[in-house]
Specification:
CATH superfamily of the domain at 9-102: Winged helix-like DNA-binding domain superfamily/Winged helix DNA-binding domain
CATH architecture of the domain at 9-102: Orthogonal Bundle
Distance between the termini: 24 Å
CATH topology of the domain at 9-102: Arc Repressor Mutant, subunit A
Order of helices and strands: EEEHEHHHEEEHHHHHHH
Structural class: alpha+beta
Largest sheet: 4 strands, mixed
Number of strands: 7
Oligomer: single chain
Strand order of the largest sheet: 3-2-1-7
Helix content: 55-70%
């Protein structure tokens, strides 16, 4: 089986794609997928489904959702529900777990590619870094879990994935700018700065790409748009890096060497407890 959470939720077997249609069933499946290989405690599942106001029948309803998911896995794999309960969606002390070896999850491949890409950049292999980071970002089919109703637990994980996506993009653009690929990054940066109006790193990269493409006036407009958003929203001025970049644009200085990211390898922390590990 293949599972996807980097966009709309899906389960794929032999090329056929499926997913539960009921919103709460999708929520339970998504919770299990983003914590694949870990035990997801029953209280966390209940909280994500009903926040702080679960129905009296909440535990029984959750058990029904688990049973329905096992039936779905049984239907698409040909395994019996007993085999699914033993090898795929297993009951553990205090909760449930999707077995790590049950299938291939797109987010796991994404995390491996981001790690290998950042390690390549850290050892000076820009070509390998660009290849792996680009391949990682191509796995995204839209916002993480775009069609899944998320409670507080799942929403925190979804935001973590989105932040990781932005960070990977920043690393990729940083090396592309150093390689002289100024125009190639403009379209994506234009969209991302609109979507993230307070993100100084993306705005700095956009300013620099515009400046090196001979579009100083637009680069200055990006700075003033960022500054206006920061002052109005947070009462803050742009940070020193963006300020120095702004001065370089004003001075028509193309020799300035901004550093948008720190070139060092990412080391994943072991996920030893539910919610306690960082995979990126």
């Amino acid at each position: 089986m293949e599972f996807g959470v980097l966009g709309p939720l899906y389960v794929r077997v032999n090329g056929a794609t499926t997913a539960p249609s009921a919103p709460k069933l999708r929520n339970v499946l998504a919770m299990l997928l983003v914590h694949a290989g870990q035990v997801v405690p029953v209280p966390s599942l209940v909280r994500d489904l009903w926040d702080e106001d679960p129905p009296v029948s909440g535990l029984t309803t959750l058990q029904t959702y688990i049973l329905n998911l096992r039936k779905m896995f049984s239907a698409v794999t040909g395994l019996t529900t007993a085999e699914v309960a033993r090898d795929v969606l297993v009951t553990r002390a205090g909760g449930y777990a999707l077995a790590a070896e049950a299938g291939v999850l797109d987010v796991h491949r994404y995390q491996r590619l981001v790690t290998s890409g950042r390690e390549a950049l850290a050892r000076g292999d820009d070509a390998a870094g660009v290849r792996d980071l680009n391949e990682a970002l191509l796995l995204w089919r839209g916002p993480a879990l775009a069609d899944v109703p998320a409670g507080r637990v799942l929403e925190s994980r979804r935001r973590q994935l989105e932040e990781s996506r932005l960070a990977a993009f920043e690393y990729l653009v940083d090396v592309e700018l150093r390689l002289g690929m100024y125009r190639e990054v403009l379209a994506e940066l234009a969209a991302l700065t609109v979507e993230n109006p307070l993100h100084e790193g993306l705005h700095g990269q956009y300013m620099w790409a515009l400046h090196l493409s001979g579009r100083r006036a637009q680069a200055l407009q990006v700075f003033h748009r960022l500054r206006g958003a920061l002052v109005a929203g947070l009462g803050l001025e742009p940070g020193p890096q963006v300020q120095r970049l702004h001065q370089a644009v004003l001075n028509a200085d193309t020799a300035f060497e901004p550093r948008f990211t720190v070139r060092r390898p990412a080391v994943a922390a072991p996920a030893t407890a539910f919610g306690g590990g960082r995979s990126y």
